[in-house]
Amino acid sequence: MPIRYIPYDKVPVKGQAILNNITRTQRLLSYKDNDKVYERIIRGIPYYELNEIERVGEASENLIIRGECLSACAYLKEQGIKVDLVYIDPPFASGADYAKKVYIRKNPKLAKKIKKAEEKLELDELASFEEKMYGDIWSKEDYLNWMYENLMAIKEVMSDTASIYVHLDWHIGHYVKILMDEVFGEENFRNEIVWKYFGPTSTKVNYPRKHDNIYYYTYSDEKIFNYEACLVEYDEKAIRRYDKIDEDGRRYKIYNEKDGTQRRAYMNAGTPTEIFEIPAEQNPYYGTQKPQALLERIIKASSNEKMIVADFFGGSGVTAKVANDLNRKFIHCDIGINSIQTVRDRLKESRAGFKILEVQDGLNLFRNPTQTMDKLASLIDGLSKEKPEGINSFWFGVITDSKYGTIPVYLPDLRDSTKKVLDIVAINEVINKEIHNFDSFSGEIKKVVIYYVDIIDLNEIKKFIKENNETLIEVELRDLKQVLDFVVIDDKVDFSLNENGLLYEVKINSFYSDRLKQKIDEYNAKQASKAKGSFITISDDGLELIEYISLDCTNESGSWKSDSEIKIDKNGFISVDGVKTKDFWDGVITSTQKPKRLKIRNIAGDEIVYIC
Ligand SMILES: C[S@@+](CC[C@H](N)C(=O)[O-])C[C@H]1O[C@@H](n2cnc3c(N)ncnc32)[C@H](O)[C@@H]1O
Ligand 1: which residue has its CA nearest to atom 18? Predict the structure, then answer.
């Protein structure tokens, strides 16, 4: 439950153009469920406790926050931290779930033997399976209501001279532009940047889509815009053609007019325009990763050294990485564990100093909300997603019970933060709307189950149900976290600690992950149905399922301090304390001080900590 709600100080901007076919209530674009957003804005930004889970490198103000954009904004506001530049690349409402490939690593016991043979293996040939990173399937209404709240919260933490860049595409970008007019003011809209990318295309029934849209607003007229810093590089061909330089250093060529006269034609290349032609990132860490060159142009143009650059949907951490390289401070936020680990490792390699904070909002049940939702159906006893006719999509599924018959079950959609808290508004929808839809079942539905991850006040909700439920249908409330706590089985490690001269040596003897085993079994079962299926086999000691190992020789509990660490990449090569090598892992990690704790991350990102 949020510790409290932090009021919004800013109000949506007044006096915006109103489109004829969109009417507004409460100064919001009028979409379904608008009134709920309005109520949430009035209530404030939910503020949850944050725990420091790790500190890396020298003390600094740089932050990596695992949690939702809203929670990160509540924290920054509470701490009085203002940011100077925001770049966000949120889900695009693309109608797809995003997955990442999880690669099986080399088993240290076999590594030496296979080193030679496998050095040239292409990535495609490495054994791998897919894991969902985040979901991007929304109704337009849900998306816009969610985005409105996020933009309002972000505005609360922007400095008076800050800029914001919102990166979207054709799916929903034009609607968000209108939301942004309302949140930031039409007069603060500076430009629409087109990121033009390249690459093959398969469509022949439409113009191939080769650009994204980035909406650029500033908080006020008093903005930072470094024109010189964003001049684009001259391209070589143009330089050859424009071979003369005038007294001010500008390139030109002599142009012969039809009438035989000559004039100077100046070269335009080099002048920044809102079209950014930048190739997509090669070898990305993340499916939706944006190129460093794109962020470089934005960060150089709209911030100065030492300023704070924030990305609340940070993904692979490209914004944080480039900000750090350009001597800015960074704040990276994301809900997915894989994002946090990727940016942590990336910034460690860059020798940055930062703290990692985790929002205690009860949402971090599995690696990310999408995977949690996928799991839920299998975790709740007897729950089936197949629903009899007449039970609408509000209900996640049904339980069939010998006493009660069909029990519709509601689960909060963990991918949408606005659905997380069971409050009076949410329960009112159940009591005064949804259970009345069962009237036509003539008494067949006797009970419904409402799961919650977060509840404002259990007694108040129960009282509300008692006083307002005019049907004979019983409403049972259940805590979702208890279901999950019970079922998640932690990974298991067998290790030994030895002193070897001046070094302490931790040897990993075996590793077992029930979660990965289930996933690999699932993968193999699918392969079995294919004519040429390729199976994944895991050795008895399971060391090929480890991605990262760290020793904390400083703290026995609380925030992690990595005094020695090894990361194993897709090809099996290790980085030692953030420095890449061409060695394979030998199953051992050493430290000069006595280790107090051992942390192991498996290839899908689950972490386990052992006391040494
Ligand atoms: C398109 S990706 C960002 C990619 C990033 N710009 C990069 O270059 O790697 C969107 C990210 O938003 C995260 N996300 C989705 N909903 C979120 C929320 N409510 N708060 C914070 N992060 C969220 C997802 O986990 C995902 O990593």
Answer: 68
Give the C-alpha separation, 209 to 228, whole Å.
Answer: 31
Q: How far is CA 579 from CA 346, 389, 576, in A?
A: 11, 58, 5
Element (H, E) at 507: strand 503-512
Average pLDDT value for residue range 465-491: 81
Tell me the pLDDT tens digit for each residue of 395-438.
Answer: 988 888 888 888 999 988 777 766 777 888 788 888 888 888 88
User: What is the overall mean pLDDT for the chain?
Assistant: 85
Q: Ligand 1 centre from 390 Cα, in Å? A: 35
pLDDT tier at 110, thresholds 50, 70, 90: low
Is 251:240 a contact under the CB 8 Å cutoff?
no
Q: In terms of pLDDT, which residue wins out, 87 or 139?
A: 87
| Percent of the chain whose pLDDT exceeds 90 | 45
Distance 170 CA to ligand 1 centre (A): 18
Where does 70-114 show beta strands of DSSP type E?
Answer: 83-88, 96-103
pLDDT at residue 269 tops 60: no
Span(s) in the chain for CATH 3.40.50.150: 4-95+137-229+272-359
Q: Stretch 279-289: mean pLDDT, rounded?
A: 80
Pocket test for ligand 1, best of 70, 134, 213 (most atoms within 8 A of CB): 134
Q: What is the pLDDT of residue 286?
A: 77
CATH topology of domain 369-486: Trna Endonuclease; Chain: A, domain 1 (3.40.1350)
| CATH, range 4-95+137-229+272-359 | 3.40.50.150
- Region 172-187 average pLDDT: 91
Q: Give kind and range of the element (H or E) at residue 429.
A: helix 424-432
In this structure, the residues whose C-beta lies within 6 A of any atom of ligand 1 are: 68-69, 89-91, 134, 286, 288-290, 312-313, 315-316, 318, 333-336, 339, 368, 417
Distances (CA, A) of 177 to 53, 174, 183, 471: 36, 5, 10, 44
- Cα distances (angstroms) measured from residue 589 to each of 35, 512, 538, 611: 56, 18, 22, 15
**Beta 383-384 vs 397-401: how paired, if at all?**
antiparallel
User: How far is the centre of ligand 1, averaged over its atoms, from the C-alpha of 90 (Å)?
Assistant: 5
Crossing angle of helices 69-79 and 140-156, rounded to 10°:
20
The best mutation among 171, 334, 340, 372 to test binding of ligand 1, ranked by most ligand atoms within 8 Å of the C-beta, falls on: 334
Expressed in angstroms and rounded, the spacing between residue 325 Cα and the centre of ligand 1 is 21
pLDDT at residue 367, as a whole number: 63
The residue whose C-alpha atom lies closest to atom 5 belonging to ligand 1 is 315
pLDDT digits (tens, 9 = 90+) for 320-332: 999 999 999 999 9
Where are the CATH 3.40.1350 domain residues in the chain? 369-486
| Centre of ligand 1 from the C-alpha of residue 35, in Å | 26
CB contact at 8 A, 39 and 56: no
The tally of CA atoms less than 13 A away on the side-chain side of residue 497 is: 15
Query: In the prediction, which pLDDT does 285 show?
Result: 77
pLDDT category at 261 given cuts 50, 70, 90 is very high
For the CA atoms of 393, 395, 397, 402, the dihedral, rounded to the nearest 10 degrees, stands at: -130
